[in-house]
Protein: Isoquinoline 1-oxidoreductase, beta subunit
Organism: Bradyrhizobium yuanmingense
Amino acid sequence: MVKTFSASSSRLSRRQFLVNSAAAGGSLVLGFSLPVDGSAAAAAETFSPNAFIRVSRDGQVTLIMPYVEMGQGTYTSIPMLIAEELEVELGQIRLEHAPPDEKLYYNPLLGVQATGNSNAMRGAWKPLREAGAAARLMLIEAAAKRWGVDASSCHAKAGKVIHASGKTLSYGELVGDAARLTPPKAISLKTPDRFTLIGTSAKRLDLPGKVNGTALFGIDARPSGLKIATLAQSPVPGGRVKRVDDTAAKAIKGVRQIVRLDDAVAVVADHMGAAEKGLDALKIEWDDGSHAALTSEEVYRQLEQAVQGRGAVAQDVGGAEKAMASAAVRVTASYRLPFLAHATMEPMNCTAHVHDGVCELWLGTQAIARVQAAAAKTAGVPLEKVTVHNHLIGGGFGRRLETDGAVRAVQVAMQVDGPVKLIWTREEDIQHDLYRPSWVDRIEAGLDRDGRPLAWINRFAGSSVVARWLPPGFKDGIDPDSVDGAIDLSYAIPNVHVEYARVEPPGIQTGFWRSVGPSHNVFVTESFVDELAAAAKRDPLAYRRDLLAHNPKTRAVLDLAAEKSGWGTPLPQRWGRGVSLQKAFGSLLVQVAEVEVAKDGSVRVHRVVCAMDCGTVINPDTVEAQIQSGVMFGVTAALYGEITLNNGRVEQGNFDTYQMLRINEAPAIEVHLVSSTEPPGGMGEAGTSGIVPAIANAVFAATGKRLRQLPIDPALLKT
């Protein structure tokens, strides 16, 4: 069965990212039980059977949300899991951000308290359903004891326990009784045939507040006595402040204070306008340090040198070198990809108040416990003296897994009397990002006389985000994220050898960026499979289909994409269709892009057809929205995305030089889902990594010109 959605606008695993053993202490067991004081239970105003659920006497259910909402729909889909098993209406659940607590609220797939890697739903799928089911069983048991009947004669529905006789008790009436009980050890979850909410297109719970303006993002925090600050950081990584003339800045009306740090200067004012004017008036002389001559070409030179040598072996199957020697045809290619910025709509910001040995923060973060720890270290206070208020995030994409925004705010707040909100300008946000790594690949394949691949050798070099962000996850020279999409390919290739060389760019820190490793590897592998199809003189989709004869599940998704896209039907001149296939984030996704290349070389993506098997679909509307969002993010990267360095400085500064896809450039997007009862796969990043090679392959179909470097250069495609 296939579920189909379309969104038209004519104008408009990673393999396990972190190894389980990388978790602190190695344990991935979520504890549900919270201590219950029997003497106090009878008078309890709430029933808290575990760390995630609280039921009050008025029947209100509160979900202590261990993940953060940044547009991906978790604040609707995760409550759906609770509501399904607890047997309450979705609207009956209110949300409360989980406090920093790595033991109670860590992500079981990451081993830390964080939202990322497209695994919020994967991580929540079983634990949060078990939390809801445990609460339901305890409420049923409480009602049965009150009635003096067997619990098997009772069931729950719509926030009530109902006896076979028809008598009922609301959950609110059972709070005190349920609080006395011990959580059950054995929990039976609903089977898919009994789902009433999971699988339906529930309305987004966070949408009304975002429409009427009541939703609070990090940038909206306004504690009493707040001042606003903005800053200039060293334009060259590793640089320092040499001297500052702040005379003119202090004369600006509304400017209250100038805060000088080792490598930055902040202006504190009554409002953002005054702070920005004060910043413009500052005369700062920088000591650029050792990276003052760094250029993009130097970064690429180091990467290209690395792929000429040997790296850590990520996968070795058969004997690729020996098989290559006997190949009838050998195909080689080199690819390179640039640094990419996150450019979130909400720029980096954090409100901080440091006083009397305590520190309080207001922000939107994907890693609240990390922020708490970083703030404590910066302020020099104990961890328990740091309070973090988490908020909605206006775009994360991995950027807010980092703590640098909070650290800067604490550094400034330590010199300010009262709370201060530090807001980065767009230029600071783009020029001091932690970028998606830049990559260089040297890839080679040997084909037999029928054009089928006998051997595949891929050597690539780039930065490791995991080695910095969570060192235990980097083992034997391998970053599991950096090789995701380069190994364990879906295709039947008997001899495979993949090597990864970690090369850190001088002074530049890299970070997680929507789909990270697959955003690089899927582009390279799927572009190169297309090159093999061309060398074999085969249709690229038919060529992939033949290589999937052993893999009927993946082949079925490819066939669905072919059918829905009208693969093989005629297109206008200088139009082309391109296909990509990926297995990442626990989901299978095939994307077909229809692209037009104008005579001046500009590329327009007209239509994208997506076929996906992502396991159980919790909220079809959210899945569709995430695919759309990921496609737009990826199209932007393919057409415009590039961070370049000259004289140690990032050359892009705002949306005029780091361009976003405009609404009139947005393609029509169709999403077709394969029905499944398997556990859910990841959705937030899948659409981004697969669309880029689909576009590149479509450009080749339209022009005969192969793209091995991004972003697309129109000069190369002119007639």
